[in-house]
Structure formats: C-alpha cells, structure tokens
Amino acid sequence: MSDMRNSTFDQEGILAPSDSACRKAPGAADACGSRGETAQEVPATDGLSAEWRAYRDALSAAARADASAPFAPGDARAAVPEPLRPGKHAVHHSYIWLGGLSAMGAIMVAVLISMVGSIPSLIEDIPAALLVPIVLGGGLIFAIVLAGIAFFVQWLSWKNLRYELGPSEFALFSGVISKKRRHVPYQRVQSVNQQAGVLQRVLGICNVKIDTAGGAANEAVTLRYVRVSDAEALRSELFRRKKILLAGGSIDEFGTAFVGGEVVPSAWIAACAGGDVRSAAFAFGADASIFDRSFDAPMSEGFAVDAAAAGGAIKVGGGNVLDGADELLGDLRGVFGGQEVATGAVSYESGLSNKELFFAGLSGAAGHFGVIIAGIVGLAGAVVQFFQSNIESWIELAFDGSAAADGADVLGGLFGSFAWQLALWAVLSVLALWAFSVIGTIVQYGGFKVRRRESRIEVEHGLLQRTFHGVDVDRVQTVIVKQSFVRRLIGYCELSVGKIDSATQDGQDKQMAARGVVIHPFVKMDRVPELVSGLLPEFADMPQETVKPAPIALRRAIVRRGIIRSTMFWVALAAIVGRMVLEAGVRAGVLSVDPGTFAILEIAFAGCIALFVIVFALNVIDAALWHRGSGLGYDDSFMSVTNDGLSRRTVVFPRKKIQYGSLVTNPFQRMAHVSIVSAVTAAGVGGTTEQLWDVSDEEAGRWLEWVRPRGNAQGETSFV
To answer: Which of 81, 457, 472 is nearest to 242 (CA)?
Structure first.
C-alpha cells in the first residue's frame, strides 16, 4: 500500500492492511485470509491487530522461502541481487571453468618443464612413422585427463565455497576436506575493493576483497569470480550494515534495520511485500506515523541506479580521450555483469584531463626507470665482454707508452662500425621500452575516477584491467602530498591517503599499502585544497607550519645525508682503503698485478671518486633544501609534517588519529639540544611513523605538551 487509501482501521484504532495489500506479498495471501476470520482466530497481544500479525508472519515465511528458486514474471523478488537475499550464496559459475582453465595451464607448464630432460629417452625407441601420432595422441589424452581432474577439483571447491550475510557479521565457508569458516564483523569492514583482468571484464565478473582493517594481525577476505552486479550490491550492503551497527541499531535475519525506534525494511523484505515498504515496516514494529510521511527507498539503497542522485555529483577536472572507451565498457558490463546497482549518492567526483593523464603516464613509467637502466648496464657488459681482448690489448699498449697512434687505431676500429650500430640499437630499444611503459601506464589510468560517495572515498581506474578501491572516511588516517624533483619544477604532485591496512601476501597489495591509496596521480598544487575539500572535507583544515628545524640542523643534515647515510661515501672509502692496500702490496712485492688489470682498477677508482663527489654535492643540496623547507604545524585539531629536499612530502592528520607521540634523542642530539619529533598513526600495516628531525628542545617540548592526552568532563582522557 502506498497511502492511507489502501488501508483500513480496525476496532482498536490500529492501521491494518487491506485484502489487496495482503495479496501483494508473494506467498502471503493464504496466511492473511479475510480480515474478520483472522481477527477472531488470533488475539492482538503485541500492539498489532491479528491481521497485521498474520501479515508479518506471511512476510517472514515468504522471506525464508528458497531465495534461489525461479520467480514468476513481474515478481519483485527476482530483481533483488543475490547478496541481498537471506541464506548462503555461491560465487559465479565461472569459478569452475575459468579457474579450472587457469589451474590446468599452470599444471601443464609445470609438467612440461619437469619432463624436458626425460623426453629424449622416452621417444628414442619409438619408430619415426609412429612418433607424431603417438605424441599427439598421448598429449591429447594427457590434456583430457588433466582437464577432467582440474575441473572436478575446481567444481568441488566451488560447491564448498559459500558466503553469508548474518545479522552481525559476514561469514565465508570454504574447504573440501579441511573445512574453513571465517567471520568478519561488519564494524570492522574498512573497504570493499574490486579488481578485474581483461578477460574478467569482458565476462562481467571480478574479484572482491573485503579489507577488515585488522592491521598486521588479520588478512583481508577475498571472493573470486563474483558478478559485477553482485559485487556492487555486496559492497553497498556491507557498508549499510556497518552503519546500522555503529549507530547502535540491530539487524534481523532478513537484513531489516532497527535503529533508534525506526524500522527500515531490507530490499528483500520490501520485495516480498510487493514493494509496499510502509506496510512491511509497520508489520515489523514501526510506529503508525510512518503512513503520514514520505518513505524513501530502504536502507539497502535499492537495487536500481539512482540517476537523480548520481546526476547531482559535483564533477571537476574534466575528462580525457580514454573516458569514452571506459564508459562504453562500463555500459556493456560484460557477459554476466548484470544490471547496475546503486551504491549511494555521489557528492563529488573528479577525473583526469588529457594533460594530467599523459604526465601521469610519464610519472608512472618513471617507476620502471631502474629496470631500463639495468638493461642498459647488462647490454654494456655484454659489449665489453665481446670486445674484451681488443680493450685489454689497447690498455696494455697505452700503459707501456708505445704506439699511441696504434692504440687509437685499435680503439677506432673497435667502435667504428659494429659497436656503434649495436649501441644505436640499444638506445632505440630503451626508447621503445620507455614508450611502451608510458602507453601501458596511460592505459592503466584510463577511465580514472575519484569520488566521494556518502562516507566513502572511491578510486577506480584501468581501461583493460579495472581496479576499484574504496575506503571509509573514518578509516583514513593521513592525507599525503608528494612531489618528486621534476614535479616540483612544474608545480604538480601526487595526492594520496594513508589508511589502516590488513596483512596480505599479495605483492601488489603490499606495494599499495606502503604507498597508500592514490586519489590523484598527477594534480597541480593549487588544486589540492579543492580536491581535499571535495573528497575529504574532514581533513580540509591544514595547520600552518610554524616549527622549523633548529639552525644547527643544517650541519647535522649534511653530515647525516652526505656521509653517514650515503652509500657512495662508504663505497668510496672502501675503494680508497683497497687502493692503499693494493699499492702497498705491490711495492712490498707481496702482490703481483699485470699492467692491464692495474689500469682497469685505476680507471674504476677514479670513476668511483668522481661519482662520490657528484652524489655528495647532490646530498648537500638536498640537506640545504630540507633545512629550508621542512616544518611542523599543529593546531587544536590537526597536525602536519613536511620533509623537504630534492623531493617533498607533506603529511596531514587529525590529532585524534595519533596513536602516540614521542621525542627521540641520541647523545649527539642531546649535545646539540635538538630532538626528533615522532607521531605514530595507524596507517598501513602495523602503523606508520611521521618524523621531523632536529627540532629545538624548546619547540619539541611545546609539541609534546600539545600531543598529551586531554581530560574531558567525565575525567576520561583522549587525543580529541
């Protein structure tokens, strides 16, 4: 019933459903009966009339029925995504055949590698005429048997893999022989992330990871091969239930919420009531005034896209050439993707412009620079080894001081033709690798979107391999602004947030946890306040940095960065000591070194010293920039730490997110009357420490007083 006209009042003055309202509930018509007969058979003992009690029992019976059974055309229950239905649920059936193919391929590769050495002995006694048929037939039989085993094992795993949303926790059941059951309380859910490879995106399935925010003590829960629509519904439902329980409410077996005297039927109960949300709410204990006010969609956030809410988002940052392709792939949703599920209203959204996308690709490709340099070094080593004899003969001639012209001729012949061509091809290969890396990174950031959806931040990107990462604002610990040297020159930065992470064995996830959640890979510095205000208004109050390192910190920074922590300093020191020992040994006649080797060692020593001088100069510049630009700021609610240098990193976090603060000093710092200011947050796995070195003792003491827990009116202490 949608209004008062679909209902009647019984003799006790309580609103009761009409006969037509009873018939709206699938499977409830028999339980409702006629109003007069039901009122005579069942007394009203819980504030509801007999008819309303029968209606509630009918709804409960319909809700407990087999939720996976086929429904009649037009039945509202058929539109409810499977995760929103009661009971245990299976992942998509592609778990069997797609996972089986993956397992089969891995096993075949391992078997073939292990059989490489024994293949010649197996085929040596086979006649040549029968070799091809036997090999092909044996390989086919082997593949069929292997496929049967792989798919059967995968089917058994799928049959025993189920998940369930209970009143207070998410449960995952797995294991064929050794059964395993994992429970995740809704209050501990930090993020529900999705990831889909190229084939998975075509099929409309993905992997879902539920981050439990347990730090180093817990691992995230992963569901593989889930339909995209089911993943969206599961994410929405998990956050809905978390919100209800954190508000002090409760949830029944059907997902209906009871919060502060309010009753909000779940999507499943609303569907069992034929869409009559008011009647369902009243039957489960809501006040009769519910019929006098408007009633929006249930707290499950519905199971259809809320176009009006989505259209109200504030979108900034423009788009790029890849957004159209990503939107097309998103609209198609793959073979099994299903209907799009609304997951809440978006209040702010931003993307990447063409320029930002291109430079984000360049900056991402810079991460592979070490691999490219390693390739150049390896290629150079191969060239040197190839021409080793020519180089040694030229060095010996140069050392003896004879035939300098002949040495030049040898050198010219060495690098006159083939070597230069090889070097040219090496340069072209490196440039090609760099270009492919840039293109790959641009495709990786294709369709980039960052948005604020209710109390969550969502980041998704990837034109082919799609990654979705969401985090509840309550779990965000820090806002991080990072600038490399090149980005500082052009006024851009990377904006990310640090959050509590669960322990994981996935290398990619570990790297993400160390880096934080990147909410914009390449953004102009003057846009940072706008992005933070739109995505994280809770962190928009950045304090002014007034505490700087002490004057003596510059000298200490030069010593620390240029000598103590400099790898090149210790390498150069080892080279100097080694050269002195070698020279002393040669003069004493203890060691004998041929002239060619000695000349090579001299060249290596000179290069090592020159490299140390260059690195030391850069370290001095880095220390000077650090001393000039680093700082510490704090006010009533927030703290910020900036560590400057050739690169710059600023971290902002609320005072209430500080786990503890401390001052650390060593004997040399105590002599210089400076301290290390350390604030520990829960970001990452096991916490993250933000530090500023060599703050004067006076300023450090003031900060320590600021960070001390404060008493409240009840005599309790906190960082708030």
So the answer is: 472
Angstrom distance (rounded) from CA 651 to CA 497:
9
- HSE-up of residue 665 (Cα within 13 Å, Cβ side): 16
Per-residue pLDDT tens over the stretch 284-340: 888 777 666 555 544 444 444 443 344 455 666 667 777 777 777 777 788 888 888
User: Which among 463, 432, 194, 453 is positioned nearest to 320, based on CA atoms?
Assistant: 463
Closest CA to 77 of 280, 335, 241, 239: 280
First to last CA, the chain: 48
Structure-token pair, residue 177: 């022989």
pTM for the model stands at: 0.76
Name every residue whose Cβ is closer than 8 Å to that of residue 252 and which is 6 or more positions away in sequence.
167, 258, 284
Cα 498 to Cα 543: distance, rounded to the nearest angstrom: 18
φ and ψ of 548, to 5 deg: -115, 160
Q: Strand, helix or coil at 135?
A: helix
Q: What is the chain's Cα-based Rg?
A: 34
- C-alpha 208/C-alpha 227 separation (Å) is 10
For residue 712, the SS3 value is coil
**What is the tens place of the pLDDT at every residue in 65-123?**
877 777 777 788 888 888 999 889 999 999 998 888 888 888 877 777 776 666 666 66
Residue 167 Cα to chain centre, angstroms: 28
Separation of alpha carbons 643 and 638, rounded Å: 17
Closest CA to 77 of 28, 30, 33: 28
- Cβ–Cβ < 8 Å for 432, 451: no
Give the amino acid at 389.
Answer: S
Residue ranges of alpha helices (H) inside 416-465 are: 418-444
Nearest residue to 688 (alpha-carbon basis) of 642, 651, 647, 634: 651
Q: What are phi and psi of 13, to 5 degrees?
A: 80, 15
Residue ranges of E strands in 289-340: 314-316
